[in-house]
Amino acid sequence: MISKVILKEVKLLKREITFLKKEIKQRNLYRKRLLTIGEASKLSGVSKSYIQKLTASKTIPYSKPTGKLIYIQRKDLYHFLSSNYISSNEEIDSRVADFIINTTRK
Question: Which stretches within 32-86 are classed as H helix?
Fold first, then answer.
C-alpha cells in the first residue's frame, strides 16, 4: 500500500508539472510572430470575440492563408494596442516646458 506522504508528493509533483507546462506554452506564445485569434486574445488580454470583431471590421490587419484560419502578426497586434496613446500630465508638462524654452531662444 502506498503511504499518504507519497500520494501527497505525487499530487504536488503533478501540480508543479502542470504549472510548468503552462509556463512553457506562455513563453512560446511570446516568441511567435503569427498568432491565432485565441493566442492574440491571451497575449492582449481581451476576449476572442473582440479580436474577431477587430478582424471582421478590418481594424487590425490579418491573413487567411487557408481561407479558414485567421492569423495576426504580433507587430500588428502591438501596433493596434498601442495606438491612441494618451500622454501623462508629466509628459505634457515636459513638452510644454521644452516648447517654451525653444521658442524663447529664437
Answer: 37-44, 48-56, 74-81
